[in-house]
Amino acid sequence: MTTATGGQAAWVRVGHSTAEDSATAAAEATALAVEGADAQLVVVFVSKGHDLDVVASTVDEQSGPALVVGASTAGEVFTDGPADASVVVMALGGDGFSVATGLGISEDAQDPAADLTNVSLRDAAFAAADCVNQVERREHTVLLLLADGLVGDQMEVVRGAYEQAGASIPLVGGCAGDDLDMLQTFQIFGDKVHRGAVVAAAISSDRPIGIGVRHGWEPVGESMLVTASQGVVVSTLDDRPALDVYLDRFDAPAEVRTNLDAFIDFAVTRPLGIRRRDRMEIRYVGGADFEARTLQCIAEVPAGGLAWTMTGDAETVLGATDDACTEAIEALGGADPLGLMVFDCIARRSVLTGEGDHDEVARMRVHAGDAPVAGFYTYGEIARTRGAGGFHNQTLVALALG
Amino acid sequence: MHDSSWSLHTLAEFLSVFSPDGDQDVLRLAVDRAAEAFDAEVAVVLHEDGTVQRSIGLNGRDLDQLAASQAERPDHLRLAGDALSLLWAPVDEHAVLTIGRFHHRFDSEERALFRAMARSMTLSLRLVGAVEAERAARELSEQQASEVARLLTELQARTAIMNQLERIQRAISVRRPTKEILDAVTTGAMSHLGAQAAGLFLEDESRPEVGILFCVAGEGTSDEMHHEIADREHPARLAVATNGVVVVESDTPPIPGTAGGSGAISVLAAPVHRNGAPVGALVVQAGGDGGRFDTEAVEIATTFADHASLALNDASAMEAIRLALAEAVHQATHDALTGLANRHRVTQELNRLLDASRHSPVPHPVTVLFVDVDRFKQVNDAHGHAVGDDLLKGVAERLRRHVRDQDLVGRLAGDEFVLIVDGRGLSEGRQLAQRLVAELAEPLEIGNLAIVPSISVGVAEAAPTDDAEAALSSADLAMYRAKQRGRGRFELFDQALRESARRRASAEADLRRAIDDEQFVVHYQPSVRLLDRRVVGVEALVRWEHPTRGMVRPDEFIPVAEETGVITEIDNFVLREACRQVAEWGRVEPSMANMSLSVNVSARQFNDPKLPGAVRAALDASGLRAEQLYLEITESVMMEDAASSPTLADLGEMGIRLAVDDFGTGYSSLRYLRQFPVGLLKIDRSFVDGLGIEHEDEVIISTVIGLARSLGIAVVAEGVETEPQLKHLTAMGCDFAQGYLFGRPRAAAEVRMMVMGIDARADIEERHGHQGGAPAPSADADDARGS
Fold first, then answer.
1. Which residues of A touch B3 (CB under 8 A)?
2. For chain A, percent of residues with pLDDT exceeding 90
3. Is there a contact between A303 and B59 if contact means CB atoms under 8 Å apart?
4. Residue B781: what pLDDT?
5. Hey, are the CB atoms on A304 and B11 less than 8 Å from each other?
6. Burial of B677 (0-12, 13-18, 19+ CB in 10 A)
7. S-S: A287 plus which of A149, A296, B177, B752, CB 3.0-4.6 Å?
8. Which of B18, B39, B98 would best serve as a mutation to test chain A binding (most A beta carbons within 10 A)?
9. Alpha carbon of B301: minimum distance to chain A alpha carbons (Å)
10. Residues 6 or more apart from B699 whose CB is under 8 A from it?
C-alpha cells in the first residue's frame, strides 16, 4: 500500500509517445505528463507490443514520488486521438488531491504457466481496493480499478472492490487488453508488471468527480430466454444451442460459422444485451465453442433472464460517446474538468471504421475543453455510481476530474 | 416502473446462481446478487443475535446502525445524511436478509420480488445445508446409514422443489399462458407438500363478496370448476383478510370436489399478492391422515404462493385472468345456446334468495315458474336440431322480455326453462304464468317456418324450509300436472301436489330399500312353440315380495319406479338375474340349452347409453348367448325412441334382437321393422281375445303373421287362455304363444319342473281337468311389466 500527498494547485496532464523503443516511449510520455512537477499519481496505458517491464520501471523512475498504476491495452487514447503501439501517461498532482494505490494478485497467477481462464479476481480486487481505507479522505473520492481483462468473470472484480469500498465510493476503470490477441493482459503497479491482478488507485479530491457511462447499442429482434448458462458460458438460448441461435439471428456468413478468428471479429460488434432493473446491460461475446455450440462472454449471463442480440453503428456509438462525456462533466456541477480519463471498449472502436475513432476522440476533446484526455481501448469497463454492480461491456466510461 | 416480467426473470436469474453442490459461499452470493438485482447499494445478512454474517455497501458505524435496527425492521434509515430505503425478509429461522438503496424507494413489485427471493433462498440454503450434512454423514460409520438415507431423501425433495420452481419461472419467462403457470403453482404445491389437493383462489374484483377458485389440482377436482366462495371464514378469504398465512383444521374440505378425509383436514392458505396487496390465496389441503402442516410446509407453500404473485404482477397476466375468469364464470353460469343462466347459476341464485328470505324480518316470497316447451321433440325430429335450437332461442327471448330486470330466467336443460321471481307470491306468479302462456303462443318465424310455441308452466312459491332443489321440484311437479291436463297451460303447486310428492318420495325410499334388501324377484312366463307345444322360451317378469304387504303387483310400483328413476336399477337387476337363471338352466338341463329369454326394457332404459354395457356384462357374467336374449320394447317405444336411441346400434352389433310387445295396438312402420333388429313380434292379447268372436281381430292377426313371415320375424301370441284360441293361432301359422293356458308366471324352480315334467300339454290337460275348460282370470304378462 502506498500513499502520497501534494503541495500546489491541482493539475492533470497527459503525455504520449509513439517511440518504438520502450524506454524512450515511456520516458517521453512520462516527461510530457509530469513536466518536472511532483505528481501524486501516474497512470500508464501501454501497448503490450512494448517491453512492459522496461516501460514500468522507466515510468516509475521518471515520475519521482508519484504512485504508478497501469495496464496493457488494445489501443490507446489521448488528447490528440486514438493510437496503437504507443504509451500514454496521465499524471495528476497538486493540492486538493490525495491518492493511495493498491495491488491484488490472484493466487493462481503466482505460477506463470497457470491457466487463469476460470480464476476469480474477487479477492484480488478486494485486496487492491483496500487503498480506499488508506487514502487521506477529501470531499470526493473515486476508486480507479485496472484489472486483468482475460481472467475469470470480470464482474467479480467489481464485487470484490465494492465489498471493500462500500456504497460511498464510486468505482471506475477498465480491463487491460492485449491488442486483441486475446491471450494475456498485464497490470502495472509501481515498477512491476503483473498478470491475473487488479491494481487500484483511490483518488480523493476537494473538487468534484464525475462519471459517465453509455454503450450505444440497440436490441434487434425478439428477446430470447437464457435457458442454460454457467457463468460466462451461454449454452442455450430459447432451448436451442446458443451459438446457433446467435449465428442465425445475425445471419452470419459461412466463415464465421467455422472459423474462430472470423467469429471473434464478427462478434465484436454484435454483443448480447441482458435486462437489468431499468436498463440493458451489454455482454461482449468474446468467443465460441464450435463443438459444444456455446457462446463465451466476458461477464456472467445468468440463466433465467432475457437476452437480446444487439447491434450498433457509428452513429449510435458516437452518440453514446457524447452522452457519456456530457454526463461525466455535468456531474462536476459546472466546474471545468482538469482531466478526462476514458475507458472505451475495443468493440466500439471496431464499429468506428475509417476515421471514426479519430472522430470519437475529437468529440471527447470537445467535451473536455482545455482538459487533457487519456485512456485506452479496454476488454471491459467498470463504473459503479449506484447499486452494487458496475461491470460493463462494449461501453464507454468517462471519468472527469474536476 | 419495470418491464412487466422483470421481477420474474430477475428471480430466475437470482436462483440460477445457487447450486446444490455446497461449494458456494451462499451468503456472499446472496448479498451480491440481491443487491445487484435491485440496484441496491446495501445488502446484509444479520443473525438474530445482531451479528453481521455478511454485508456489502456499509462499513463501520453505518453497518452497526443498520444491524441495531434489526428488531424494528424500519423501511428506511438515515445514514451519512442520506435516506436508505430498506427491505427485510427472513432467510431462515435465525437470520434476516436486508437490502438498502439510496435515492430510490422500493416499489411494490420489488417488495414482492424480494420476498420471493428470500424465501427461495431459504430453500436453497436448506438445500445446501442438506448437501453438506449428507456429505458429513457419508464420512461416518455404517450405523449412521439411516441418517444418510434421511438426508438424501430430504435432499432429493428439496432439489425437486427447486426444480419445480425453476420450471415455473421458465414458464413465466417464456410467457406461457397465465393459467398454465398458475396450474404449475398449484400442482407443484400439492405434490411437494404431499397434499391431497391445492387450489388458487382469487378475489373477484367485480364482486368483492366472493372469491373464485381459479385453478386447482388434486384428485376429485376438475379444471372446469370455477367455484365461487362466498364464505368469509374460508381459509383463502382469511388469508386475504389477514394478509398472512393461515393454518387451520377444517371439517369440510375447502377445495370443492375433494373428498376430504374421515377426520379434520389440515388446511394451509398463503396469500398471493398483486402490487403488494393480497388478491387471493394458494390453498393446500392435506389428506385426512395427512397431519398438520409444519413450519417448513408453510415456507414451501409461501414460496409457491410468491411465484403466483410474481405471475400476477404482470399486468397482461392479470388482464388475461380477468378475461378468463369472466369467461369461465359466464360459461359456468350461463347456457351457451340462449345466454340464459344455467342450472348451476339458477340453483345458486335461488339458494341465495331463499337464504336471504329466511333471514329477512318480514316475509319475503320467492316464486318459481317451471316452463317446459310442449312437443319440442317433435319439432326437433320434424325440422331438425337447428330449427329446434332457434325455437329455444325464441322462447328464451320471449321469456326474458316478460320479466322484470331483477328476475332471473334460466334454462335448466333441453326444453326446460325456469323463472325466479323475487318478492312476489303465488298470485303474481299465476298472473305471470297466464301472461306467458298467452303471449308465448304467438307464431315464431324460424326460417321459412312459422312455429307456434306452446308452453306448460308450473308455478310454486317456495316454502320457508325449501332449498333450491325442493323449490324447483315443486314447480316441476306443477308443470307436470299442466302437461297431464293438456299442455299449453299452467298449474299452481298446491297441497295435493305436495302430498303426492311426499308419497312419491316415500315410495321411492321404499323401492330403494327393496333393492337393497333384495325384495325383488324374477318370475318367468313360459312361451310355447305351437308346432310341438314345447316350452322354448320365457319372459322375465319382476315381482316385489314386500315383507309386510306380500307380493306387490308390478302395476302398483312400476309407475313410481319409472317416475323416480329407480326403474333403471330394477331393470338391471332383472336383466342380470334372468340371464343368470336361463343360462344355468341350459347348463344343467340339455333340453333347456336353447331356451330364449325376453326381458322387458323401459323407454328410459332403452335410451340409456349404459344399456349395451349392462347387457354385455349380464351376458358375460352368465354365459348366456346373445342370440338367446330378446330385449322387449313396446310398439310405441319402437316408434318414438328407436330411431334416436343411442343404444340400438351397439345392441345390434352384439347380436341382440328386439321383441316388439303389444304389436298391433299402435301404428307401426314397416320401415322400422326392417330397419331394426326385430326378431319377435308379440301380438297383443286384445286381438287374441277376439279370436273366434271378432272377424276383424282375426284379420289383424292373420295380417301380422303374414307380415312377420315375409320379414323373417317370428310371432308370439300373448294372453292365450283357451284351447280354441290356440287352435286358431296354430291354423293361422303363428309360431309361439304364451298365456294362462300354458301357465302363469312362476318362480324359476317351478318353471324348470314344468319343463322337466313332460311338457306343456300335460300342464294344459291338467288345468283343463281341474277347471273344466273355463278360462281363469289372466295373470300373465300384461299385468307383469317386467322392467
1. 275
2. 73
3. no
4. 41
5. yes
6. middle
7. A296
8. B39
9. 22
10. none
Q: Is B514 within 8 Å of B542 (Cβ atoms)?
A: no
Averages of pLDDT over runs of 10 residues in chain A (402 residues) are 57 96 97 93 97 97 95 96 96 94 89 78 95 95 95 88 94 95 93 96 96 92 85 90 94 93 89 87 90 90 86 91 96 94 93 91 96 96 92 94 94
Q: Report the candidate in A358, A158, A185, A171 with the shortest Cα–Cα distance to residue A286.
A: A185
- The nearest CA of chain B is from the CA of A61 a distance in Å of 37
Return the sign of the alpha-carbon dihedral for residues A316, A322, A325, A326: negative
pLDDT digits (tens, 9 = 90+) for B577-613: 999 999 999 998 888 999 999 999 888 788 888 899 9
Interface check for A303 against chain B (CB to CB < 8 A): the answer is yes
DSSP code of residue B467? -
Judged by DSSP in three states, A166 sits in coil
SS3 labels along A39-105: EEEEEEEEECCCCHHHHHHHHHHHCCCCEEEEEEECCEEECCEEECCCEEEEEEECCCEEEEEEEEE
Output the CA torsion A132→A135→A141→A142 (10° steps). Answer: -50
Cβ neighbours of B32 in A, within 8 Å: 159, 388
Question: In this structure, what C-alpha cell is assigned to residue A223?
Answer: 428477446
Determine the distance in angstroms separating the CA of A80 from the nearest CA of chain B, rounded to an integer.
37
- CA A68 to centroid of chain Cα atoms: 17
Work out the minimum CA distance from A137 to partner chain B, whole angstroms. 15
How many CB atoms within 10 Å of residue B262? 8
Give the C-alpha separation, B486 to B480, whole Å.
10
**Maximum Cα–Cα distance across chain A:** 62
Residue pair A22/A156 in contact by the 8 Å Cβ criterion: no
How wide is the angle at C-alpha A397 spanned by C-alphas A396 and A401, nearest 5°?
140
pLDDT < 50 stretches in chain B: 1, 4, 141-143, 758-787
Of B13, B40, B59, the CB nearest to A305: B13
Is the CB of A231 inside 8 Å of chain B's CB atoms?
no
Contact B56 A276 (CB under 8 A): no
ipTM: 0.86
Taking Cα atoms as reference points, which of B367, B370, B295, B316 lies closest to residue B172? B316
8 A C-beta contact, residue B304 and residue B328: no
Which residues of chain A are within 8 Å of residue B173 when distances are taken between CB atoms? 225, 304-306
- Candidates B54, B32, B14, B79; CA nearest to A387 is B32
Question: Which set of grid coordinates corresponds to residue B570?
Answer: 330394477
- A–B interface: beta-carbon pairs under 8 A: 83
Running DSSP on this structure, what letter comes out for residue B334?
B
User: Closest Cα of chain B to A167: distance in Å?
Assistant: 4
Full 3-state SS string of B76-89: EEEECCEEEEEEEE
Under DSSP, the state recorded for B371 is: E
pLDDT of A181 reads 87
% of chain B residues with pLDDT over 70 = 82
**By C-alpha distance, which of A381, A400, A401, A402 is closest to A391?**
A381
- Residue for grid cell 465494492: A162
B41·A167 Cβ contact <8 A: yes
A387 → closest Cβ in B3, B36, B80: B36
- Which DSSP symbol is given to B115? H
Query: Packing angle between helix B495-516 and helix B554-564, nearest 10 degrees?
Result: 100
Between CA A272 and CA A311 the distance in angstroms is: 9
Spatial separation of the C-alpha atoms in residues B121 and B167, rounded to whole Å: 16
Q: Assess contact for B380 and B402: CB atoms under 8 A.
A: no
Candidates B8, B33, B59, B168: best to mutate against A (most CBs of A within 10 A) is B59
- Which positions in chain A touch B37 (Cβ < 8 Å)? 277
